[in-house]
Amino acid sequence: MLVSTKSEQTQTSSTVAEPISGAPSASSEHVVNQSVAANARQNSNPVSADTPIKMTAGNVDLFYGPKQALKKVNAAFPEKTITALIGPSGCGKSTFLRCLNRMNDLIEGCKITGDVQLDGENIYARGVDVVQLRQRVGMVFQKPNPFPMSIWDNIAYGPRLRGIRQKNALNEIVEDSLQNAALWNEVKDDLKKSALGLSGGQQQRLCIARALATKPEVVLMDEPCSALDPISTLKIEELMRELRSQYTIVIVTHNMQQAARCSDQTAFFLLGELVEMDSSSKMFTDPSDKRTEDYITGRFG
Ligand SMILES: Nc1ncnc2c1ncn2[C@@H]1O[C@H](COP(=O)(O)OP(=O)(O)OP(=O)(O)O)[C@@H](O)[C@H]1O
Ligand SMILES: [Mg+2]
Fold it and tell me: Cα(256) to centroid of ligand 1, in Å?
């Protein structure tokens, strides 16, 4: 049994899969939720073997003080695809997501080994500009966190930090980003109003627009819909599917339907290990590992 990182063809030499000893063999008696499976069949695009790989994680171990939260995680993220990270609470999904743009650097006592590559370069190498890295690999958090300023200022914040001063250029970025985040029509007459006055779903789309304004290549989303009603959730999902043509997206979700509806590939985490990673249609219809099957069929977690 291998920790499969999508498929052998998409692995790079730095992401060679590690065997897990004692892993149970696949069972033929899957009781997979039929609607989840149907969504996965319908929506996930099996990633073609020649899609370039945007990011990889190779043998990533992570410790919070003495506690190991990630164990030899190997994964590959092909360009312009959506990867869903699933698994029970506390299994390390957010921790792993944060490794991809060095957000864990901000946590005291956190130690990481292994390597994470963006376009073939180790993001943990000495001399890497972390601010620039986080512009290339943007993040949207579980709880919308607009800055206490106007809608316009929220979006212009990152570009201004990057030195863009011209009002016209900033106006253009603000409009483009809000258009891309499917929020423009709702807020175009209120750009000077406080972002805190928006609804939760609008605030989350604002945060996505803010992440897009710095022109990232990869967008990380940690349960971006968990605080939203079903309509706002559907809007964000629709948005993700549109963004896929331009960005590589990694999303943490507890919602199996969402993972099946939106993602091209899915990674299942358990107790800090990446148990299995494959196309979402395979993961939700015929997972290779018994533990994945137990999780997606609701037997635990
Ligand atoms: N800042 C931290 N300091 C110490 N331990 C942490 C920290 N953040 C997470 N952990 C621990 O690391 C493990 C993985 O946590 P993580 O938040 O990555 O899980 P998760 O899969 O995202 O869970 P959830 O689905 O509940 O969000 C947990 O045991 C958690 O207690
Ligand atoms: Mg989490």
Answer: 20
DSSP-derived secondary structure letter, 15: G
Residue nearest to atom 27 of ligand 1 (CA): 89
121-122 and 137-140: which strand pairing?
unpaired
Rounded CA separation 100/138 (Å): 10
CATH of the domain at 185: 3.40.50.300
Given a contact cutoff of 8 angstroms between Cβ atoms, the answer to whether 213 and 245 are in contact is: no
Residue ranges making up the domain that contains 119: 3-9+31-124+132-296
* Tens-binned pLDDT, residue by residue, of the chain (301 aa): 333 333 333 333 333 333 223 333 333 344 556 777 676 666 666 667 788 999 999 999 999 999 999 999 999 999 999 999 999 999 999 999 999 999 999 899 999 999 999 999 999 999 999 999 999 999 999 899 999 999 999 999 999 988 999 999 999 999 999 998 889 999 999 999 999 999 999 999 999 999 999 999 999 999 998 888 888 888 888 888 889 999 999 999 999 989 998 999 999 999 999 999 999 999 999 999 999 999 998 876 5
What is the Cα–Cα distance from 254 to 157, expressed in whole angstroms?
A: 31
Query: Is 93 a pocket residue for ligand 1 (Cβ < 6 Å)?
Result: yes
Atom of ligand 1 lying closest to residue 91 CA: 21
For residue 22, tell me if it sits in a domain: no
Measured in Å, residue 90 CA sits from the centre of ligand 1 at 5
With a 6 A CB cut-off, is 92 part of the ligand 1 pocket? yes
Answer whether 0.90 is exceeded by the pTM. no
